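--- STAGE predict ---
source: upstream dedup step, 1 unique chain passed
mode: sequence only
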Amino acid sequence: MSELHATLDIASALPVSRCVAEQASDRPEAMAVASGCGNLTYSELDRRANQLAHHLGKMGVGREKLVGLYMDRSLEMIVAALGILKSGAAYLPLDPAMPLERLEFVLRDADVAAVITRQSLQSRLPSGSWQVVNFDRDRELLGQYSTQSLPIEIGPQDLAYVIYTSGSTGQPKGVEITHTGLQNLIAWHVKAFAVTSEDRASHQAALGFDAAVWELWPYLAAGASVHLIDETVRGNPQKIRDWMVAQRITIAFLATPLAESIMLLDWPRSTAVRTLLTGADTLHRRPSSKLPFVLVNNYGPTECTVVATSGVVAADGSASERPSIGKPIDNIVAYIVDEHLQPVAPGTPGELCLAGPGLARGYRRQPGLTEEKFVSDASVSGGRLYRTGDLASLLPNGEIQFLGRTDEQIKVRGYRVEPEEIVRALDHHAEVACSAVVAIDDGGEDKRLAAYLVTTPGSTLTAGQLRSFLQSRLPDYMIPAAFVRVESLPLTNNGKVDRAALPAPDDSNVIREAAYVAPAGIVEQRLAGIIAPLLHVDRVGANDNFFLLGGHSLLGTQLVTRIGEAFGVELSLLSLFDHPTLAGMAREIERLAQEKIESMSTQEVLQALSQGDARNQ
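--- STAGE serialize ---
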């Protein structure tokens, strides 16, 4: 096999908990973490994390134990994650947006010893054998413990964290990451991007997304400061840009769809941002040479500790040339092979396989699946090879071109989705006889999930009922954008669903919320003309729900921007959630326009009218 890799000595690398302790000793008053609610110095972060570690130790939690982290993105969340690592245990991020049924499955499947949460979330936490630490209720108790580090030796192969991803069996699967993998990520990142204590990094990713790991530990290990993006800013490209400029952020990660949107904006030359990292989905465009920062495209399955390959995206490439995913990071070895694990010639598509210290230990409590995906191979470092299931080819310059999947797995909004998990949930509905889920590419930059359903006789299912049913079982990103009713699922000769033969969603087969009602009035009609191409649908009725037609928060930010351009009003993303139908949005636009007119002088009204006439000519 032809190897693609670079080396970096991590034999002497310290666990991240030790790195933070050293920063607290050397620079106690330096800012470690900041948010709109306050900030923590390195000394404060280290002291509070040590107190939690002592408490966990008294509870019997230590090495190889798993602790659930059921908290919102906050200063306390970072204290809790660090405290878990300082206790010698590993943490399991649990996104508060996770449906309760999925939350309970993950907690029991992972066999957690304890869960750390906040008062506002504990009522949603299922009961179980695990112990619970409530950061608000137990504040005084935690404050009584020693602020010194526990005398624990953390081994390189000890478990650091577990993240659950979508599973092909219909159930999520837990990926076990060791301290060696985390240390390799940190050492490469600090070296590759010249991270110093002067850096100010952003933290934007949801807790259950492994990019959140990357946005946190390399910077704290290097003594930089981490700045949490406020929830009201996270999904809006313009607000993210303004926030980054105001906070003097120097290095940031944004998932691919957000990064592509933010690259289209004008940036002040005085911005402190020097590096924008992106990844988690296919990058479709190159940055403009006018941008004041470097764009770096990254690729990596959760099974390889967040990042496996990385590369700067040149601004002067051909517009038709899709950016590559770069080259393997330090100590990661990449192979492109055929179905027999034999190397393919450069330029020939093959499966991308990875080896090196970044590889996960395996899947939690699933030895069969671990053996299937982590192949034993004496010719590679560590004797293991992870089969990613991704298609790739080697470019003449040594970089890797991502080409798609070898199986049915889908990438949606940066998350890996196994269609079988959605099918399993749908098939539990009493009025669904059978189903299939596919990704639809409408030629845009984001894929949509479409569910094809054979319903029981006499079924009157609506899109809203199906969405509500799935919301209690699946994360938001796994809920299909369109539900399509079919008489039967087409099959191939070997009895599998023939996805290529499924009809395209259109007005004749898409299950809607209610009967179509044509838009009334100029505002509704103009709004329908904005929404239809954005969602790649033929028409939008007055009662159609933006989110039931396939909209989500990222598309919502685009819609809000286009509404502002078309109507001259600032409709917030929160208002879009409160008024998701076409008619509801139109009423809000009219209300905002009326308020704006009432606050304007006669001269301002006349000037606005003349500008509107000029735009319409």
